[in-house]
Amino acid sequence: MSVTRSGEQIAACSRGLLDRELASPASLIVCIAKDLAETRGRWSHGSGFARGGGGGAISLGCESVYVALVLRHAAALIPDADPPRIVNRHVRPLLGVLGKLGVPSMYGGRDFIASRRSPIAWVGFQHSVDTGRAAFEAIIGVESPIAETPRRAFLDRTPRSLRDLGCKADAQTIANRIEAAYSEAKVEVEVEVEVGVEVGVEVEVEVEVEVEVEVGVVGARRVAGVTTVFGDFYASRELVPRIHAGLASGLEVSDCLAQAVSGAVLFGLPSTEPLARVITAARCR
Asked: Strands, E, within the chain: which ranges?
C-alpha cells in the first residue's frame, strides 16, 4: 500500500535506499507526494532536497508518484540486469502501467520516460560497488510536470504531466497499479518509509569550473585548497569519494580517475574526460 509523504521525506528515503535491510531479493517503495518540493541529484549543486542517486533538479509536485525498487544486487530479479542496465531492465513494468493508463510511453536510454515526445517521468538508479546493492527510482508527474522548462538532459523538450496528456487516473490509482505490476515479479512491497534529515553546510568557494554535458553539467570546485567534483551525472556511490581521496593523496588526475571508475558505473558522461578537464582547470586557477 502506497503512503503519502512530503518531498523532504521522499528525498530522505531515496538517500537511504542502499542501506535498507532487505528480507527478500527486492523491495518496492511507492509514495505519493503531499506537497511541492524541488529535489536534486546526490552530486548536483543545485537547490532542493538531495536524492540518493545522481541526476539534476527534478520537481516533486503534489500528487507526484515516487517509485523505488531496492535490489539486493543488480541482477536480483533479472539475470542480465548488470549495473549499467539497472534502469533499462527495471523500467518495463512502469512503462506497461503507463500504457494501460492511456499514456503510451518509451524509455530511450536517458534519465526520463517520454510520451508523445514529452518527458513525463524521471528515472534513475543507485549502485554500490562495495555491497552490490542497487536501486531503480522514478518520479512520475501526475498533476504537474517533473520540470517547468526544457533542458538539454530532456533533449530540449518541455516536460508534461499525465493530466496534460489526458490521463484521468488519480495518484492513488496509479500507485496501486505500479505496486501490482512489480508485485507480479515477486517483489516485496514495503509500507513503512524510513526518513531522515538532510544537513547542509555553507562553504566559501575559491574556484568553481563547470562544463555542459548531456545530462546537465559537470564541474569542480576548490575550497580551502581541496578540489572536489560535482554534477548531474549518475555513478556508483563510491566513485566520487574515490576521486576526492585520490586527488587528496596527490595522484595524477588521469590515474585518479582510472582508479575511481574501476568496477564502478558512470552514466551521463561520454568518458572521464569532462571530469579531468574541470579538475585540471579548478586546480590551475
From this structure: 3-5, 26-33, 37-40, 49-50, 58-60, 65-71, 106-107, 112-115, 118-127, 134-140, 188-189, 207-213, 216-223, 226-231, 234-235, 266-267
User: What pLDDT digit, counting tens, does each position of 67-102 carry?
Assistant: 999 999 999 999 999 999 999 999 999 999 999 999
Q: Give the start-to-end residue ranges of the domains of the chain.
A: 3-189, 207-284
Q: Are β-strands 58-60 and 65-71 bridged in parallel, bridged antiparallel, or unpaired?
A: unpaired
Angle at 241 between CA 236 and CA 242, to 5 degrees: 85
Residue 141 amino acid letter? G
Interval 191-215: pLDDT, tens: 555 555 554 555 577 899 999 999 9
CA distances from 282 to 205, 234, 241, 246, 273 (A): 11, 21, 18, 16, 14
- Cell digits of residue 42: 546526490
Contact 91, 81 (CB under 8 A): no
Q: What pLDDT does 10 receive?
A: 96
Cell digits of residue 204: 566559501
Tell me how long the chain is: 285
Q: Over the stretch 19-33, which tens digit does the pLDDT of each residue have?
A: 999 989 999 999 999
Say yes or no: domain 3-189 is CATH 3.30.930.10. Answer: yes
Asked whether the whole model's pTM tops 0.70, one would answer yes
CA distance linking residue 32 with residue 85, whole number of Å: 26
Mean pLDDT, residues 55-77 taken together = 97
**Strand 49-50, strand 37-40: pairing:** parallel
